[in-house]
Specification:
Elements (H helix, E strand, L loop, with lengths): L1 H26 L6 H24 L10 H24 L5 H8 L2 H11 L6 H17 L13 H8 L8 H34 L2 H20 L14 H26 L8 H8 L1 H14 L6 H21 L1 H11 L3
Helix pairs in contact: 1-10, 1-12, 2-3, 2-9, 2-10, 3-8, 3-9, 4-8, 4-12, 4-13, 5-8, 5-13, 5-14, 6-13, 7-8, 8-9, 8-14, 11-13, 12-13
């Protein structure tokens, strides 16, 4: 059973990496708004979840732990921001997969920093993980022109440039915005991951997880549909039929990958230690970077930095998952009544 769980988990990592590629293919042209893309993705995913649920469990409802629906609502609220930031970054010319995947994967590091803030100190593995992720962020945000000593800290350098966008050339401006979107996504992902962990824990079974994911997808689909009612003049693409067919095919694939990665990865928690699941899941970071470089010819001038960043951030994520600080922080949230 453990061998099957590991096989499904690795397949889920492939789905997760493929999502980054398909998303980039759809959004890079800029003809599709992020909210429209996300609404289609979530509604198609909800339809697939509903079909899966009805085929396997029919109309039976699972027994759920108290505050399950509160955890689903909180995870949905966090993911509205996370998914929009990720999709917005994918629309930018400089929002390359090999750049964004390592940045968006820094959530475990942000979780550890949050734990330190509220007094939950990590162990040795956690501290080593933070150092690895800090080194990875430095590699991927290597400052080209250092004016001050603190510019050597990659994230600080990029955040400082955010206030001087008008002085930057188009390439550097786009890269700075993409990096800040990635860091913001990872920061919001701190709460998203914790709330998703809460609702998975309270689901108690795969049936509960699928029901929660169905509700989660529906909520996000509705939220991302709302902006369409406030758009006074929608912009239609030139070749509507051709783009619509391509868009529909791409969104169907996205919906399948979204559901597939959840269905493959979530059951692993029932058969493997959380640290094992966290470790294997992080392989999708390196896979995403490699696919972005091979398929899109990304980052030719920063190929070495991005590969090193992916390796270090992956290693940092693995160390933090083994440290168990995420479970500790989740328990702390539950003690506060969430």
């Amino acid at each position: 059973m453990q061998g099957q769980a590991i096989g499904l988990l690795l397949l889920g990592c492939l789905f997760l990496s493929s999502m980054q590629i398909v998303k980039r293919c759809i959004l890079k042209s800029g003809s599709i708004k992020p909210t429209r893309f996300l609404a289609w993705q979530m509604f198609l995913a909800a339809a697939m979840y509903a079909g899966l649920y009805l085929v396997v469990w029919g109309w039976r409802l699972p027994s759920l732990a108290p505050k399950f629906w509160l955890a689903v609502a909180l995870a949905s609220a966090a993911n509205v921001i996370i998914q929009y930031l990720n999709a917005k970054a994918a629309t930018l010319e400089q929002g390359e997969v090999s750049l964004m995947a390592p940045l968006q994967a820094m959530t475990p590091g942000m979780i550890t920093l949050l734990a330190i803030t509220i007094g939950e100190l990590p162990g040795l593995l956690g501290w080593l993980g933070i150092l690895c992720m800090a080194a990875g962020s430095y590699y991927i945000m290597w400052p080209r022109q250092k004016e001050f000593w603190y510019d050597r800290i990659g994230p600080v350098y990029r955040l400082r440039l955010l206030f001087r966008l008008h002085t930057l050339d188009p390439v550097e401006r786009g890269r700075t915005i993409a990096v800040c979107l990635g860091l913001a996504s990872a920061t919001c992902g701190t709460f998203g991951l914790l709330f998703e962990s809460l609702y998975a824990r309270r689901a108690g079974s795969l049936q509960g997880i699928v029901l929660g994911s169905l509700t989660f997808s529906l909520i996000l689909g509705v939220v991302f549909t709302i902006p369409r009612f406030f758009t006074s003049k929608p912009v239609e693409p030139t070749n509507t039929s051709k783009i619509s067919r391509r868009f529909l095919l791409g969104m169907t694939v996205m919906g399948f990958l979204w559901v597939g990665h959840q269905v493959c990865i979530q059951p692993a928690f029932l058969h493997l230690l959380t640290s094992y699941v966290g470790t294997l899941k992080r392989l999708s970071i390196i896979l995403s970077v490699v696919l972005g470089i091979v398929l899109f010819r990304e980052g030719k001038d920063q190929l070495k930095n991005r590969l090193w960043a992916a390796i270090l951030i992956t290693l940092g994520s693995i160390l933090i998952s083994w440290d168990g600080i995420t479970n500790t922080l989740t328990n702390t949230f539950e003690r506060f009544g969430l």
